[in-house]
Amino acid sequence: MDQAIELIKLCEDWCKDTTDAADRDLRGCFEKYLSLLGWEAPKSFESAFLDVSGFVEAPDGISLVVYFTVSDALLPPSKLLGLGLDFCDSTRWRVEEAREHHFDYALITDLYRSYLYDVETDELLLSSDTPSIFLIEIYDEITKECVDEGSLREIRRNPRSTVAKQLRHWRSRWSTSIEQQAGGSDEIAATLIDRLFVLRFLAERELERKGGSGLHNRIRALGDQARSPAPGGTGKELERLFNGLFSARRMALYAPAPELKPILENDDLLAPMLGEFALISKVKFTIPALLESFNFGEAAEKARVRLVPGGDGRREDLIANQTLDAIDDFQLEIDVLEEGYRAIGFWLGKLTALYHRLAREAEAADVPELGPGGRMPRAIRDMHRHSVESGLRIFYNSPRQFRTARLMLYLYTIKAYSDSGEAFAHFPKVELAFKQRPVLLDSEKRWIAQPSAGDTSRGRNVV
């Protein structure tokens, strides 16, 4: 504990010293700081920053890079988290450099404020606004003794509910700004933010699959421009990116929308918004976190976010009995009102699994090609496209249900392509899957007319 107290005194004395940084022994202070954590002789690496930096390694190969910032000010972590962000400019750039050097964890500190990141997952693990908070929150996790015992791996990650709450706060804050500063409606704000969320999800998926992504690089360049001293034209660049996704990939979500024009032309609003957007961790752009971010408002809508799809014997039987010659006409109905949003991904997966099964059976039995012109059914030739455009019918009962369900179908479809390794030249026409819910669905009418004995699915499951 004596070393911990001495470390806090070192930090406080450094921060109180008004001498110009160039006249102080930065390297000596840095090495003393690490030695009080139990680390001796940190290794150097080539860094683009003027910081004093180095890295240390545990016996199991886990590496921790430490940046002692002298050229950039660090924002108070509490302020950053209050905005729903994970990085400031200074930490974002350094974590990216740490990733290029394949470090596992990064501690970024000016000896007053400190941030600890998992470099691979992009997560802000721990932070402190002051040296005394550092002693409570971070110290025990980064001493050599603790790191050697695996402390960094055992740091508790933020639960999904916390991650989603931060993302929801960011979205709500900027939705309000769009409405107040640009005169946009809640629906217009939601459309713009949905576009950004799908864009980021798509870029991260492409990055994982290809090991490099032109789309990811464009988003990063857009964020750099937005945060630069001259952010003019940021909105036009974003509009070009949207138009490209529509023209090249046929993603209808990005179709030209006149109602978005005033916002895209308002750089005073858009530049700070996009600047912040680039400072949100990729851990927030996963399907579970994005869906959980809609867990607000009326109790019934919150339940639709949380509702876990269960087995439906009638649907399962229908799926099991499908044949190759009739598969193009088979359709599953999903009632968002009763089944919730997770049902979309659940039954989309069941549908594509059915297509794969029929394709394997046809190949094993050497079935001749069917359909017009002797071709295999469309469900087999283009599984992901057919499942979205023809295999699903998703009923919604309100504009919010439609927006949330549409966003989730985009995400699930991108994931399906990514997981299969298939590229898409033109994205499926997602909007074809949706239909305003009538008072009674056809499946409900059939059930009312011919209820089966012991049927417990009334008012819940549809086929």
* Spans of at least 5 consecutive residues with low confidence: 453-462
Radius of gyration: 26 Å
The number of helical runs is 23
Assembly context of the chains:
single chain
Strand order of the largest sheet: 1-2-3-4-5
* Major sheet size, sense and barrel closure: 5 strands, mixed
Give average pLDDT, whole number.
89
What's the shape? elongated
> Helices and strands: which structural class?
alpha/beta
Could you give the distance between the termini?
Answer: 65 Å
Helical content stands at 40-55%
Give the strand tally: 8
Percent strand equals: 5-15%
How many domains, as an integer? 3
Give the helices and strands, then pairings.
Layout: H1 2-16, H2 26-35, E1 52-57, E2 63-68, H3 77-82, H4 89-100, E3 105-109, E4 114-118, E5 123-128, H5 131-137, H6 139-142, H7 144-148, H8 151-154, H9 160-181, H10 186-210, H11 214-226, H12 234-249, H13 261-264, H14 267-277, H15 287-292, H16 299-306, H17 313-320, E6 332-335, H18 336-339, H19 342-364, H20 378-381, H21 383-391, E7 392-396, H22 399-420, E8 434-436, H23 442-449
Parallel strand pairs: 2-3, 6-7, 7-8
Antiparallel strand pairs: 1-2, 3-4, 4-5
Helix pairs in contact: 1-5, 9-10, 10-11, 10-22, 11-12, 11-14, 19-21, 19-22
Provide an overview of this structure.
With 463 residues, the protein is α/β, with parallel strands linked by helices. It has 3 domains: 2-154; 160-284; 297-449, no CATH class. Helix content is 53%, strand content 9%. It contains 23 helices and 8 strands. α22 links the parallel β7 and β8 (434-436). α10 packs across α11 (214-226), α11 packs across α14 (267-277) and α19 crosses α21. It is elongated and about 85 Å long. The chain starts with a helix and ends in a 14-residue tail after the last helix.
